[in-house]
Amino acid sequence: MLYRFSDRVWYTQAEEATDRPVLGYLRGDRMALMIDAGNSARHAEQFLALLEGQGLPAPDLVALTHSHWDHCYGLCGIGAPAIACSATRRDLERDAGLVWSDDAMRGYLADGTVQAFCEEHMRVEYPDLGEICVALPQLIFERELTLDLGGRTAVLRRLTNPHTEDGVVVYLPQERVVFVGDAAYEELVGNDWIDHPDKLRTFADALRGMDFTHCFVGHGAPMTCAELFDWFDQRLSD
Ligand SMILES: [Zn+2]
């Protein structure tokens, strides 16, 4: 299901069993941007079909929020080039070099390449692990990149955050929304979720500098700006 946020922005809901994240879409006058690529070619193709069903053009570009499989492995199902920060590209280069099989997965679980939480969801999305295909983003930036899509801009900004080293938020200033991927969440270490108050504080401060009314998080419902900062304050006061 594709939800309309405004006459320029659409998004999907996350799915728990497969760990499929929220996908976003911004329609400019000349180009359309997809935010995150989904967790498999199947997921990405379903998103493209939803766009087509609503008469929306296929994305011209894809912005990746971070390198985790559920946000990036859909890229091989999309014809458009993807944009990522250099750290995301580096992580995906590593993943693209991996062999995907039951045998190999046992090794990845043992050496920490893949966490048990991820494996559980990967097996729901990929009954045959051999179907995994990791495509690489071709457009790479370091700290910040602004895209002029015609009448609408998207600002991709790499920010210190508690979830990963490579988190990028996608800020749509005219729409006053920000897609943060998983950057607002804790870090997955083994089977534990670990919060990093210092990084969360830095992340919250960076977001406070942006003018937005709504925030899209990777695995939940959209939040108002006030709900987001209440959630951060709660975690920082624990
Ligand atoms: Zn993640």
What is the total tally of β strands?
Answer: 15
Radius of gyration: 17 Å
Number of separate helices: 7
- Contiguous uncertain segments of 5+ residues: none
The structural class is alpha/beta
- State the helicity in percent bands: 25-40%
Largest sheet: 7 strands, mixed
Between the first and last Cα atoms, what is the distance in angstroms?
Answer: 36 Å
| CATH architecture classification | 4-Layer Sandwich
Indicate how many domains the architecture comprises.
1
Please characterize this protein's 3D structure.
This protein has 238 residues and is of the alpha/beta class. It has one domain (2-237): 4-Layer Sandwich (Metallo-beta-lactamase, Chain A), CATH 3.60.15.10. It is 31% helix and 24% strand. It has 7 helices and 15 strands. The chain has helices spanning 41-53, 69-72, 86-96, 102-111, 116-125, 197-208, 225-237, and strands at residues 2-4, 9-12, 24-27, 32-35, 61-63, 82-85, 139-141, 144-148, 153-158, 168-172, 177-181, 187-189, 192-194, 214-217, 223-224. The strands form 3 sheets. Strands 1-2-3-4-5-6-7 form a 7-stranded mixed sheet. Helix 1 (41-53) links the parallel strand 4 (32-35) and strand 5. Helix 6 (197-208) runs antiparallel to helix 7 (225-237). It is globular. The N and C termini lie far apart (36 Å). The model has no long low-confidence stretch (mean pLDDT 97). Zinc ion (ZN) binds at residues 66, 68, 163, 182.
